[in-house]
Design brief:
This protein is α+β, with helices and mostly antiparallel strands. The protein has 16 helices and 25 strands. It folds into four domains: 100 residues, 3-Layer(aba) Sandwich (Rossmann fold); 70 residues, Dna Ligase, domain 1 (2-Layer Sandwich); 241 residues, 2-Layer Sandwich (D-amino Acid Aminotransferase, Chain A, domain 1), CATH 3.30.470; 73 residues, no CATH class. A hairpin with a 5-residue loop joins strand 9 and strand 10.
Length: 529
């Protein structure tokens, strides 16, 4: 096992890796930009070093700085986390050239799966079903038009050099193709430094299902079940769960075997994910992520396997200590990505200082966060603040547990996506498992601003108190002594107001009598009304 490693990342994934390392007895070196001086990952690491100004191009993306820091501090390995340099083959090669261990797959596997057309060719050769489309890039709109005519509209233009929804356009008719091709090319060039585009048949209403794999140096490859990742916005995942409500045991077995074949086709080692589209009872290879995934906690909770620790163990030369028959799924897990975005207002980014942070707890609740009170959220990095994850015996219980946990999560100082997730947990199609990648398009009401229920409750209470104060002043009746305190309880038809300033009455609470015009949750108001 390593004695010390460096984490070439920030935020919640850096905190997650630190925790795994400390359980293994491994010391951790963190790096940070000037914007992250007070980040939790900096405070929790054994050592932390400033590597540059806030822009990632001048800090977290500087491979030379990261490798030099690792060597200067006596590290034996570098964990890339996800994002930034995690899927850059040149970084993996540079780490190895520097005499360090890259905690991830071989550079060759990263390169093979990073080139989407090369990945499609390899998957087809390995017998893994792929979405119909081109196996080569399409160099111009004319060639794209010919390919689209052969496949039949709608089609999908996709960046050959990357993923995450960048350089991707749905084209539903020939009239849209030239404009979409030019836009996809520009976006791909800006995001990946490569404007190459290929073509796929667009599937209407598929599910996005991915299979987690682990592979060690002696060639043992295991699949750890699936994750349902269909709740998305612009190809960015928002909610994930395991297992998928759509798969039967037989489909799970077949998809798992296909994922193992995909990993074997590129000589894979370490943790990785094979992503599929599931449509009309059939699955098609989409892409492979050659790193740990944001949604890895749901797999950890249903399998009991610490994926981050096994990343480190495999990189240190350990062999998998269990076989495929030992992997069993237990219960249901669900994850909500909590971002610094106003999801009910077009997902506008929100910045500012975290003034208050209260995270939920209790049975089956996990918080993987990268923020703390006093932390400044900026526009320099991904808006992910943390992940709220729950585990329960079944999906219905997991949804109720997530509802409860979301209600306990308090992030004050910035807007967050919490209200959006609360709405989804209450929506009938989601609760019934009727979801696909077009879920939000079919439920636009989930993103429409509504009156703030907390504000409405407060206004209702204030209105009743003002009305009673007016009655008191007019001599009708007195409702509370000066300096008293009010207790608002949840009644059958709404909360009720009682004066308990002298303590609860003997013999228990008096018979409930709901206050007129009030509904909602109970609160405690201190001081005079």
């Amino acid at each position: 096992m390593f004695q010390k490693l460096l984490i070439a990342n920030r935020g919640e994934i850096a905190v997650r890796v630190i925790r795994a390392c400390h359980e293994l007895g491994v010391e951790v070196v963190a790096v940070y930009s000037e914007a992250d001086r007070l980040s939790p990952h900096v405070l929790e690491a054994d050592e932390a070093y400033l590597i540059g100004p806030p822009p990632s191009a001048e800090s977290y993306l500087c491979a030379d700085k990261l490798i030099a820091t690792a060597k200067a501090t006596g590290c034996q390995a570098i964990h890339p986390g996800y994002g930034f340099l995690a899927e850059r083959a040149h970084f993996a090669e540079a780490v190895e050239r520097g005499g360090l261990v890259f905690i991830g797959p071989p550079a060759g596997a990263i390169a093979a799966m990073g080139d989407k057309t090369e990945a499609r060719r390899r998957m087809r050769a390995a017998g893994v079903p792929v979405v119909p489309g081109t196996l080569e890039v399409v160099p111009d709109p004319a060639r794209a038009a010919a390919g689209a005519a052969e496949l039949g509209y709608p089609v999908l233009l996709k960046a050959a050099a990357g993923g995450g929804g960048k350089g991707m356009r749905v084209v539903r008719s020939a009239d849209e193709l030239v404009r979409a091709f030019e836009a996809a090319t520009r976006e791909s060039q800006g995001a990946f430094g490569d404007g190459s585009i290929y073509l796929e048949k667009y599937l209407d209403g598929p599910r996005h299902i991915e299979i987690q794999v682990l592979a060690d140096a002696r060639g043992r490859i295991l699949h750890l079940g699936e994750r349902e990742c269909s709740i998305q916005r612009r190809h960015q995942k928002l909610i994930e769960e395991a297992p998928s409500p759509a798969l039967t045991p037989e489909l799970r077995r077949r998809m798992g075997e296909a994922a193992v074949a995909a990993a074997a086709a590129v000589g894979y080692r370490n943790a990785g994910t094979i992503e599929f589209l599931f449509h009309d009872g059939r699955f098609h290879f989409l892409e492979m992520n050659t790193r740990i995934q944001v949604e890895h906690p749901v797999t950890e909770l249903v399998t009991g396997i610490d994926l981050v620790q096994w990343q480190i163990r495999i990189a240190a030369g350990e062999h998998l200590a269990f076989g495929q028959d030992d992997v069993r799924l237990s219960g249901h897990a669900m994850e909500c990505r909590i971002t610094s975005e106003d999801a009910l207002n077009g997902f506008l980014p929100s910045t500012g200082r975290i003034e208050l942070l209260e995270v939920p707890s209790g049975p089956g609740v996990r918080w993987d966060g990268g923020i703390a009170e006093g932390f400044d959220v900026s526009l320099f990095y991904d808006p992910l603040l943390g992940k709220l994850i729950v585990h329960a015996p079944d999906r219905a219980t997991a949804i109720e547990r997530m509802r409860r946990a979301l209600g306990e999560l308090r992030i004050i100082g910035i807007e967050s996506s919490v209200p959006f997730h609360q709405r989804v947990m209450e929506e009938s199609d989601f609760r019934a498992g009727r979801i696909d990648i077009g879920y939000l398009e079919h439920h636009p009401d989930l993103l429409v601003p509504r009156p703030d229920e907390e504000v409405l409750r407060t206004m209702a209470v204030a209105a009743v108190l003002l009305e009673r104060e007016a009655r008191e002043r007019s001599g009708i009746r007195r409702i509370a002594p000066a300096g008293g305190s009010w207790r608002i309880d949840r009644g059958w038809r709404g909360p009720v107001l009682r004066d308990w300033s002298a303590g609860p009455p003997r013999g228990g609470a008096p018979r409930r009598s709901p206050a007129p015009g009030l509904t909602g949750e109970g609160k405690r108001l201190e001081g005079s009304p």
